[in-house]
């Protein structure tokens, strides 16, 4: 960066750090190609906005003029005009520099020209090849007077790209032949769409540089087609850069080369020398067919042994000839010689005599003589180490393992394994990830393929050895430390068993509730589900289905912390399930030792439509969609993240911080290669959907660049919806600013449409909120638009198939899978649910209301409740009666007394027997903040107590009738005397509305519960706080109880407290700790009925499911 620009940044640093939001600016800088994804991640990792701004400026100071200009433009686009004005006068211009030489060749002027043109710098390990460089320069000088082509061709790995870059690192060549500059473009294997992106990027760079030199020139929109891009490039190269050189690196296809047949000067690198035959103009070529020249290969070997080429033994030249000058083989042999510099003859003999099979085509590399070099590397190991190295065949590809894993396999100390690994690493036979402590080790795919081919017949016995060694080391139970070794065994023990053909042991492991509990707690449920899917062919189908269904429907609960009791969750499975059978046996055994477990005895009446429940985000989920092949689901929401997971198991494939505000919509392209997101931050981003892994994430518009031009700007309000056209060509977006934009997928340019509101004439330009837009299937250029106040629903039949009850809050979106077998939904309850459409049934629409009554009679249970069809249902265990009308029975005379006096809705009432008269009065409480006491016979109001400043939400009378308690929306609870009608205790401390209360049976304690899920235990005598029940254990909804605490009950011996809210909990009264939790399918439990012996519990959730729970004895 120029000193003037750098000085201006330093002078303005304080103002910039104070005001800018780095995350807003970085999207623009990534789009300009001056900031990488890794750099963005490092900046975002800073904890505060100001620290992020400081990190961005610190990084900017180490970059070039282009970064300064991009930063300036980003300030303009994000409305930081006042800050941009501070930088305007120091905007850099490229100018000739002094003729000073540098270590990497050329002058400062050469450096500037090559840097602006994107020419790569010299590699760290560099061997000069002057003969080839001079030959290329000689050919380039022929282009001084007229356009033409210079082709550098050779085998893979022969160093063509380095040679091309080195050939233009010459001051005289640039000033005499290419004063218009040198422009580098990496091509590779591209389709037409990707090629268009590359040319668009080149045109944008050329136009931007032209504008810097001539401010009167303007930037054009990106060309929308390959033909238009070719003409734009032709114009730029002929009129604005008439004497410049275009370098095309790694050309594979003649059709790609034709796009650059525009009568300009071109240097290209390729493996196919005949490619230039398809273009017009003068042509010349330079061959690099044999890879490294002998002198260069000897120089590499000399560097490895810290010697000089001329002092190398004669065998060195023979080694180079034997491996055909392959840089990779020369480097591998050189690494071996560094360890044993006296083994020249041995390595030469090994290369000459060993006749190994070629590594199969699926390997990462397939160069000549590579398999021979691999074999030579292994043979140099000691016999002991060679056997240990062969054991690495059991590892999975792309899996990094700690030394502890191999210490189990080899029965060695971890330190001894580290020493062995060091030997492998030194010989380039193993790679070490030094970013972790302890170190992690892994094999290259090529090495693993070679080992597998060499040891094909012994693979099963090797996997058996792994399993037996694990069983011996962990005979008392699996490791639970959570470190890398522990994670490896939980992830891959089933893989080793399957590869070893240990079918019975695989059954015993995977069909064990203990294994499910431990692995789910350490790794989450998705990995377990994947195991059942992957090994389904060799497992019992019925039992596998039991475990898979249990995990799929309860996975979101198993992600919770604190970790739920898996045995209790499993007791909700059908009685015929193997999961339930194992859970019941464990529950019965634990009950004998004082454990508390509940059996849902009427669960057989419930038919579940859900197939999978996932909780991918913290916060509301606004959008979820299937990939078009149905294998993946993408979701986004208020967490500002995009997450992609498997539709079969919920296993996370990708999670990224996609935007700076709520992500409102996500969509796969029809070929699933792209994934678009839009947000309240007014931006639209496109991601590479074909590389869905955290380590290989790429942004689009250019998928071959790690982070490049993936953001579309222009909307002025939140972007509500995005979708691809059926042909993958266009991306449409709609916004609250009243505009709809349609842009090419391979271009950041877009077309904007300002839409009239429905029903208005075309002359009106009234701004409306556009919520959704859809590109037509039969007419890709047609658009359908949904406005915020208009919804149109099309249906083929009016018949209702089912109510898919399960979500606990607003549902934001639904979508069918491509084959129609599944239905996807997302909600504010933080879950994504997958429903099986072939299970839907009309009876699912019948549900009970939460107001109910229960009769417990000698072990029989009778439940009375209204349903959503205004019928009264009377249910017992195994039977149901339904009445469509009710008879009103008049008690004795049938007369009634009307009690009037409350000013607002009466919340509830209770009977109060006062002492010593033993008279029974009626106690009523209301939203008006009062409690009134009534004479039962006359209807006379005996007391009118103004209890609270807010609504009275609950009241309870002590067992002896001497006290009663009230709770209120004013966040307080009070204890009253029924003799004096005065408040004897004011209970403060709740941070939310106090909704429930209950006296213990001995009258010594009072329990109160609030709307944040907190339960407090009080001493009734003096009002002191005794316990706060598990105050630290908040759930994902930031609540202690999944919602309001609506009901409380003490056990007859006052040792256990029962509470209801989002779920049901049992508490140890003395310790204030949870004994057990039951998670209903729904939520917002209103009331629970308890049998006199505290062994049976009955409640109904907000989606109408009845729960009859009995303690397991």
UniProtKB/TrEMBL annotation:
InterPro entries on file: APAF1_C, Apaf_helical, CARD, DEATH-like_dom_sf, NB-ARC, P-loop_NTPase, WD40/YVTN_repeat-like_dom_sf, WD40_PAC1
One term of GO molecular function: ADP binding
PROSITE patterns assigned: CARD, WD_REPEATS_1, WD_REPEATS_2, WD_REPEATS_REGION
Pfam families named in the record: APAF1_C, CARD, NB-ARC, WD40, WHD_APAF1
Keywords associated with the record: Apoptosis, Repeat, WD repeat
Residue stretches spanning the membrane: none
GO terms for biological process, alphabetical: apoptotic process; regulation of apoptotic process
Annotated GO CC locations: cytosol
WD repeats: 656-688, 712-742, 804-845, 899-944, 945-977, 987-1028
Domain CARD residue range list: 1-90
The keyword Cell division is annotated on this UniProt entry: no
Name of the protein described by the UniProt record: Apoptotic peptidase activating factor 1
Species per Swiss-Prot/TrEMBL record: Hucho hucho
């Amino acid at each position: 960066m120029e000193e003037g620009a750098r000085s201006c940044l330093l002078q303005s640093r304080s103002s910039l750090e104070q005001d800018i939001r780095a995350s807003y600016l970085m999207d623009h800088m990534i789009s300009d190609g001056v900031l990488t994804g890794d750099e963005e991640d490092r900046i975002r990792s800073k904890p505060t906005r100001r620290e992020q701004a400081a990190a961005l400026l610190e990084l900017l100071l180490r970059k070039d003029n282009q970064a300064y200009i991009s930063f300036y433009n980003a300030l303009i686009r994000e409305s930081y005009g006042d800050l941009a004005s501070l930088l305007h006068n120091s905007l850099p211009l490229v100018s000739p520099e002094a003729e000073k030489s540098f270590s990497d060749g050329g002058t400062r002027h050469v450096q500037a020209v090559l840097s602006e043109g994107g020419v790569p710098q010299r590699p760290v390990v560099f061997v000069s090849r002057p003969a080839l460089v001079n030959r290329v320069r000689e050919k380039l000088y022929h282009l001084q007077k007229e356009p033409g082509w210079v082709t550098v061709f050779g085998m893979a790995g022969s160093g063509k790209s380095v040679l091309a870059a080195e050939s233009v690192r010459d001051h005289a060549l640039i000033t005499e032949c290419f004063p218009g500059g040198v422009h580098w473009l990496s091509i590779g294997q591209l389709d037409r769409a990707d090629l268009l992106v590359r040319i668009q990027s080149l045109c944008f760079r050329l136009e931007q540089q032209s504008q810097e030199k001539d401010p009167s020139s303007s930037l054009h929109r990106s060309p929308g087609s390959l033909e238009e891009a070719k003409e734009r490039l032709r114009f730029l190269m002929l009129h604005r850069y008439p004497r410049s050189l275009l370098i095309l690196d790694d050309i594979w296809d003649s059709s790609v080369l034709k796009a650059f047949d525009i009568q300009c000067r071109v240097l290209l690198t390729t493996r196919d020398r005949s490619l230039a035959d398809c273009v017009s103009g003068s042509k010349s070529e330079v061959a690099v067919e044999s890879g490294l020249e002998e002198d260069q290969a000897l120089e590499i070997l000399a560097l490895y042994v810290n010697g000089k080429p001329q002092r190398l033994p004669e065998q060195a030249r023979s080694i180079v000839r034997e491996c055909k000058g392959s840089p990779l083989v020369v480097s591998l042999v050189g690494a071996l010689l560094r360890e044993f510099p006296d083994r020249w003859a041995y390595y030469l003999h090994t290369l000459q005599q060993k006749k190994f099979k070629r590594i199969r085509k699926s390997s990462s590399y397939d160069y000549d003589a590579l398999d021979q070099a691999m074999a030579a590397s292994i043979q140099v190991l000691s016999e002991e180490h060679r056997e240990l190295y062969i054991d690495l065949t059991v590892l999975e590809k792309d899996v990094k393992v700690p030394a502890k894993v191999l210490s189990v396999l080899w029965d060695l100390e971890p330190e001894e394994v580290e020493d062995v690994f060091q030997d492998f690493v030194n010989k380039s036979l193993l790679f070490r990830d030094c970013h972790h402590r302890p170190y992690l080790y892994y094999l290259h795919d090529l090495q693993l393929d070679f080992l597998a081919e060499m040891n094909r017949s012994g693979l099963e016995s090797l996997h058996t050895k792994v399993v037996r060694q694990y069983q011996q080391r962990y005979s008392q139970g699996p490791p639970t430390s959570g470190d890398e070794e522990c994670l490896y065994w939980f992830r891959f023990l089933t893989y080793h068993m399957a590869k070893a053909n240990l079918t019975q042991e695989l059954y015993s492991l995977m069909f064990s509730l203990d294994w499910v509990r431990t692995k789910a707690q350490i790794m989450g449920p998705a990995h377990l589900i994947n195991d059942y899917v992957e090994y389904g062919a060799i497992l019992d189908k019925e039992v596998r289905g039991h475990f898979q269904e249990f995990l799929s429907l309860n996975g979101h609960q198993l992600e919770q912390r604190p970790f739920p009791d898996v045995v209790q969750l499993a007791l909700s499975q059908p009685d015929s399930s193997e999961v339930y059978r194992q859970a019941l046996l464990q529950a019965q055994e634990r009950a004998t030792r004082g454990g508390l477990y509940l059996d849902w005895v009427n669960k057989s009446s419930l038919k579940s439509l859900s197939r999978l429940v996932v909780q991918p985000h913290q916060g509301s989920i606004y959008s979820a969609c299937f990939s078009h092949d149905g294998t993946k689901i993408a979701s986004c929401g208020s967490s500002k993240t995009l997450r992609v997971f498997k539709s079969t198991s919920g296993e996370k494939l990708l999670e990224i911080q996609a935007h700076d505000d709520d992500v409102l919509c996500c969509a796969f392209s029809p070929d699933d290669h792209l994934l678009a997101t839009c947000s309240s931050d007014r931006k639209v981003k496109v991601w590479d959907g074909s590389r869905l892994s955290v380590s290989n994430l790429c942004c689009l518009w250019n998928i071959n660049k790690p982070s490049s031009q993936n953001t579309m700007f222009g909307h002025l309000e939140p972007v509500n919806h995005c979708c691809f056209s059926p042909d993958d060509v266009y991306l449409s977006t709609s916004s609250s600013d009243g505009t709809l934009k349609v842009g090419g997928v391979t271009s950041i340019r877009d077309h904007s449409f300002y839409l009239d509101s429905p029903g208005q004439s075309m002359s009106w330009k009234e701004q409306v909120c556009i919520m959704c837009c859809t590109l037509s299937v039969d007419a890709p250029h047609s658009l359908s638009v949904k406005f915020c106040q208009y919804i149109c629903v099309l249906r083929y039949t009016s018949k209702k198939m089912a109510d898919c009850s399960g979500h606990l809050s607003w549902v934001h979106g639904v979508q069918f899978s491509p084959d129609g077998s599944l239905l996807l939904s997302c909600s504010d309850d933080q879950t994504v649910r997958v429903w099986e459409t072939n299970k839907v049934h009309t009876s699912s629409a019948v549900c009970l209301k939460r107001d109910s009554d229960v009769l417990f009679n000698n072990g029989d249970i009778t439940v009375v409740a209204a349903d959503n069809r205004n019928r009264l249902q009377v249910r017992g265990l195994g039977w149901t009666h339904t009445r469509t009308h009710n008879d009103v029975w008049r008690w004795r005379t049938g007369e009634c007394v009307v009690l009037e006096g409350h000013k607002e809705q009466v919340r509830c009432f209770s009977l109060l027997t006062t002492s010593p008269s033993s008279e029974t009065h009626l106690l009523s409480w209301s939203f008006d903040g009062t409690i009134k006491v009534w004479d039962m016979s006359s209807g006379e109001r005996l007391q009118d107590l103004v209890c609270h400043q807010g609504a009275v939400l609950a009241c309870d009378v002590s067992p002896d009738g001497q006290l009663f308690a009230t709770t209120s929306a004013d966040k307080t609870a009070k204890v009253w005397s029924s003799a004096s009608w005065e408040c004897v205790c004011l209970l403060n401390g709740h941070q939310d509305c106090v909704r429930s209360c209950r006296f213990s049976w001995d009258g010594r304690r009072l329990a109160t519960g609030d709307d944040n899920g907190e339960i407090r235990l009080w001493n009734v005598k003096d009002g002191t706080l005794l316990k706060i029940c598990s105050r630290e254990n908040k759930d994902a909804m930031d609540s202690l109880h999944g919602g309001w605490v609506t009901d409380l009950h003490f056990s007859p011996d006052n040792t256990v407290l029962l509470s209801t809210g989002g779920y049901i909990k049992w508490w140890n009264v003395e310790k204030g700790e949870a004994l057990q939790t039951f998670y209903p399918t729904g939520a917002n439990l209103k009331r629970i009925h308890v049998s006199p012996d505290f062994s049976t519990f009955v409640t109904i959730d907000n989606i109408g499911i009845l729960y009859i729970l009995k303690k397991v004895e």
